[in-house]
Amino acid sequence: MKVPYVEADLCTGCETCVSLCPEVFTMQGDKAFVSSPDKCGTCDVQEAMDTCPVEAIKWAS
Ligand code: SF4
To answer: Per the database record, which ranges form the 4Fe-4S ferredoxin-type domain (predicted)?
Structure first.
């Protein structure tokens, strides 16, 4: 299973990914992180990746 992660150094905290995939992404302080990688597939993670302004969302495998 492909699992996304957020490269915290790149994340600007714009919350776009949280808006697009609230099942997968959660804000922690001013950074987003992947809180539920197993939920991937219930929303459009690829769209979040493509929409992230700094390309901080990547596939771990
Ligand atoms: S879309 Fe990208 S920059 Fe914006 S909160 Fe998500 S990971 Fe961070």
So the answer is: 2-30
Q: What residues make up the domain containing 44?
A: 4-59
Please give the structure tokens belonging to residue 15.
Answer: 């919350």
Q: Looking at residue 54, which CATH number applies to its domain? A: 3.30.70.20
pTM: 0.89
**Model confidence over 8-47: pLDDT tens digits?**
999 999 999 999 999 999 999 999 999 998 887 766 788 9
Residue with the two structure tokens 């769209």: 47
Ligand 1: does its nearest atom lie under 6 Å from the Cβ of 20?
no
Tokens 């697009």 -> residue: 20
Which atom belonging to ligand 1 lies closest to the Cα atom of 12? 3
